[in-house]
Design goal:
By secondary structure, this protein is mainly alpha-helical. The protein has one domain: Arc Repressor Mutant, subunit A, CATH 1.10.10. The chain has a two-stranded antiparallel ribbon. Strand 1 and strand 2 form a beta hairpin. The N and C termini lie far apart (54 Å).
Length: 85
């Protein structure tokens, strides 16, 4: 695949990810969920998400979720099992 085709494909993928987040306010995805939803492989997905983070379109929350900057994710609660152990 030549560089022009890769650049065009990457641009299409970035546009698709932006559109999904724009259509679903509050969308929060793990890297695995993002790979599945956007049909990306293990190498391409982190690259795409990193571009969107650098642009300020997404951020990585404290609990590992890719979200829009305005979305707040509450911290994970400890399970009652872990507290009783």
């Amino acid at each position: 695949m030549n560089a022009d085709v890769r650049t065009e494909n990457r641009s299409h993928v970035l546009d698709r990810v932006r559109a999904e987040y724009a259509e679903m306010p509050g969308l929060s995805l793990t890297d695995v969920q993002a790979r599945r939803l956007f049909g990306l492989d293990e190498a391409e997905c982190p690259e795409v998400l990193a571009v969107l983070i650098r642009e300020g379109f997404l951020r990585l929350s404290d609990v590992g979720m890719y979200v829009r900057p305005s979305v707040r994710i509450p911290p994970r609660k400890s399970s009652s099992f872990a507290q009783s152990a």
